[in-house]
Amino acid sequence: MHARYFGPRPLIEDNSQRSQSSVILSARASYKVDAKTSVNFDVFNLFNRKSNDIEYYYLSQRCPTCAPEQDIHFHPAEPRTARLALVMHY
């Protein structure tokens, strides 16, 4: 199991805009085939939490005719994802 926690944090220096906290859990199961080979199965965002990986607060303009405005911009966390990997060392 792997847990990633980001607590609430200031998005600008005066602390008037803050991000939300987030917790994302991931899990890995691994099977060692031999001394040089293993198979890994990973599940990222195990509980499919809706949160943001990163957040910014800055001035932006949504369209050429709109007035610029301060706003929070973010990159959402990836949804639940699985990965199967064959790892071979030489």
Describe it for me?
This protein has no helices and six strands. With 90 residues, it is mostly beta strands. A four-stranded antiparallel sheet has the order 1-2-3-6, with no helix packed on it. A hairpin with an 8-residue loop joins β4 (52-60) and β5 (69-76). The model has no long low-confidence stretch (mean pLDDT 93).
Radius of gyration: 19 Å
Give the helix level as a range of percent. under 10%
Strand order of the largest sheet: 1-2-3-6
Strand content: over 45%
Give the averaged pLDDT, no decimals.
93
What is the string of helix and strand elements? EEEEEE
Number of helix segments?
A: 0
Number of strands: 6
**What is the terminal separation in angstroms?**
27 Å
Shape call: elongated
What is the compact description of this entry?
Helix content is 0%, strand content 57%. The chain has no helices and six strands.
List keywords for this structure.
elongated; mainly beta; 4-stranded antiparallel sheet
Helix and strand topology:
Blueprint: E1 2-6, E2 22-34, E3 37-44, E4 52-60, E5 69-76, E6 81-88
Antiparallel strand pairs: 1-2, 2-3, 3-6, 4-5
